[in-house]
Amino acid sequence: MAGFWGTRKKERAELAAHDAELGRRADAALVAADERLRTTDDELTFAELELGRDATRDLRDALTAVRTHLREAFQLNQLNHDEIPDTPEEARTRNARIVQLCDWAEDLLDDRLQALAEPVARARRAPEIIAGIRADVVRESARVPRAEATLARVEARYAPAALRQIAGNPREAAQLLEFATHGADISEARRESGQREQANLALETAIEASRRATTLLDAVDSFEIEALRAESTLDAIVEDSRGDLIAARDLEHLPAVGTAMATLERELGALTPAGGKPDPFTELTRLREANAALDAIVVKARERAARPVPPESHVRHAIDDADRQLGVARSVISGHRGWIGADARTRLAEAERLRLDLGAVASGPIDEDDREQALADARRCGQLAAEALQLAQRDIDSSRPNDGGWGGPGAGGRGNGGGNGIASGILGGLVIGSILDGIFD
């Protein structure tokens, strides 16, 4: 008993220490949250000066919500220090709630301030960013004549369809650069007049316009290299396709291979002749697809030639044999329902599930790709049905009494023998049928 009371005393001491620590955490959290509320209020004021009231609406709403919930936390803390004594459970619950509210307030303010950090930093660096935009405009404007010259050079070599994505890039880039300069001018003017929100919007617009202009000019510069790479790849695929057509001649009599070869030959014939303006990207895509289709069909045809497809008549014969074995096993098991164990019923259920899956395949003409699997499933179904019948006969034999209850010793022997003779005849017929199926298959 002394050990029991000592343990209880130790637990009470640990719980009291935990409650005291929770109370100190609640007091510290309240102080920190109150201080954070004041500093965030100051940061909101500075952010409104930099960005305007609309851009800081989320932070202002968050401050309102934090003030509302911290009021509840202060009321709970006041209950902890009034003259009315509290139970340890009440004090513990209040302190936990205070810590929860303060943590939530800290997380909410952190999230809203983090969302404003980048826009505020950009607004404070607005003069530097505007100077960078003007420098980018000067640099990218010098690239526009080079892009126009590049476009004229590739127009003389490639078809208009190949140039559709970059045909208007130099002109559009020049317009965007002018728009970026205009946005920078508006941003400076609005900032000087104190309209910070409009100034920041114009600054964002100028930054995006300058970025898009650079992207358009880069696309023109990279087009020549990409087109040359596509032409080189196209030459390699043309050579490979001609070799594939020669290698597939021995399989041309197969309809699928013949169709794929005709498609590939048509794509080869549709290539731009020498001296014309090609579209290497489109031609490469179409020829690659036709070449890949022929490769896949040839591989499939050669695999099929190495492993002949079973005739559909063999598959249906195997399914009929499985149906016969299933019918016998089903009738024996259903006729001796109380005597059959779980093993036989499980084998029968597996066989019926396989037969159900075969029904979807065998409902119409069986595709060549499905015949091998269907034949294997049908044979497995018949094997499971035969196993179910064997297990059922074993359960029946073990469940019959061995005394004279079946009409005396002689009659009992004849009765058991007769029953075994019938089951043996059924099993023998199924075995002979399976052997004959194997010979015919």
The run of helices and strands is: HHHHHHHHHHHH
What is the radius of gyration computed over CA atoms, rounded to a whole number of angstroms? Answer: 43 Å
How far the N terminus sits from the C terminus, by CA atoms, comes to: 84 Å
Number of helices: 12
- How many domains is the backbone divided into? 3
- What does the overall shape look like? flat
- Structural class per helix/strand content? mainly alpha
Helix content: over 70%
Q: Percent of residues in beta strands? A: under 5%
**pLDDT < 50 stretches:** 1-6, 403-441
Q: Let me know the number of strands.
A: 0
Characterize the largest beta sheet: strand count, sense, and whether it forms a barrel: none
Mean pLDDT: 82
Written overview of the protein:
- Helix content is 84%, strand content 0%.
- With 441 residues, the protein is an all-alpha fold.
- It folds into 3 domains: 14-124, no CATH class; 233-306; 314-440, no CATH class.
- The longest helix has 52 residues, at 196-247.
- The protein is flat and about 90 Å long.
- The two termini are 84 Å apart.
- Residues 1-6 and 403-441 have low confidence and may be disordered.
Q: What's a concise summary of this model?
A:
With 441 residues, this protein is an all-alpha fold.
Give the SSE map.
Blueprint: H1 2-51, H2 57-80, H3 88-124, H4 126-155, H5 169-192, H6 196-247, H7 255-269, H8 280-306, H9 312-335, H10 342-362, H11 368-399, H12 408-440
